[in-house]
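Example pasted here:
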Amino acid sequence: RSLTHLDVSHNNLRALPSELGLLSGLEVIKCRSCQLTGTLPTEIGACTKLETLAIATNSIGGTIPTEIGQLSTSCRYLDLGVNLITGTIPSEVGTLSRLETLILSWNDLSGWLPSELGQLSSLQGIFLWRGNQQLRDCF
């Protein structure tokens, strides 16, 4: 039997190990309000059954890895809000065909929203408020 849910929220963790990608049966990762720094590991894309990725309220920096697109048939809830994420929203987010909720508020994102987001027929909410002053007007 493999691990399907990992919730380590409200702990004093400092980093997400790249070995998370070895836990291919994970469906839920919650690391809210820890003290995470560094970047989101690209190996997260190997968790192809992941439905929920909630890593809000930390100090994760860098960009959203393009490997997030490898979660295309599983991810329903993606919360990377209240971090230090920079750069643009990768077009690969638009391949998350089951995505219902996308939370990227309180980061430092820039550029345009990728047009691929328009393909997300299951999307019910996208949250980009506060921070993200460099996102271009798109509505």
Q: What stands out?
A: The first strand starts at residue 5 and ends at 7. The domain at 5-135 is CATH 3.80.10.10 (Leucine-rich repeat, LRR (right-handed beta-alpha superhelix)).
